[in-house]
What does this fold into?
Amino acid sequence: MSDGADRVDAVSAPGYFISFEGGDGVGKSTQSRLLGQWLGELTGREVVLTREPGGTELGKELRAAVLHGQDMDPRTEALIYAADRAHHVASLVRPALERGAIVVTDRYLDSSVAYQAGGRELGADEVELISRWAVQDLMPDVTILLDLDPAAASARIRRQHDRLERAGAEFHRRTREAFLARAAADPDRWVVLDATASIDDLQAQIRVDVAARLELTPVVEEAEDTVAAEPDDGFDDTDSAIGYTPGLGFGPGGAAGPTTGSGAA
Ligand code: TYD
It folds into this structure.
């Protein structure tokens, strides 16, 4: 791909970019929400939770078309995901990273390589090239792959299956293999975890791996004379304190609200 003057170096942005990947029904949205909440409390930074497809208003329309619209050719499908990603990065992800936020996305470019190249059998290099062009090479600092047998994952999905989820067992087997191969080829970026673990155990492992890979600076609380700081005991009691809406962020204080300008909504 061209490394021309339009290439924007992701590494220069002061924020952190974390993506979750894996098949349908592996628990990415739960785990990304829990991680985002913890990261906000740990670092005091703004955290933006988002997803693909559908992390923006335009993205919601593209999501509806690609998941619930008429059937389409694989190349059309690949281009819709790439268009969603281009707008998502330009209007929401990159501005957040530039102001120092931690962005946690439920799916990113690797989903296109796994689903459209692995699943739909388009060329992996071409699919990646289209998305790399779309996002001017912005890649996550860390990518967490939640790996699960597709049959077990499918059984977890209680609602009606969408167009991609209906693509068949062989499609989902190829998609899983593509994720695993991609992760094996770039162990510096990827963390692969067994998604059969309980929610709490999986989240604990994710926190260990993310903290080990990112240089996160814990927020230093002002020392209080009489009140001891509450120990961080994990998961349950914090869950309801912080609201989550895709595309919205939250800070350590728990107030949910828009974190981006009008272009991001
Ligand atoms: P997701 O939002 O994870 O599914 P849900 O919220 O319905 O559980 O993803 C929607 C579907 O889109 C999923 O089947 C994976 C697929 N997908 C691709 O095929 N290519 C892509 O680039 C992305 C981001 C998703």
About this structure: The longest strand covers residues 16-22. Helices lie at 28-43, 57-68, 74-98, 109-119, 124-134, 150-156, 169-185, 199-213. The chain has a mean pLDDT of 83.
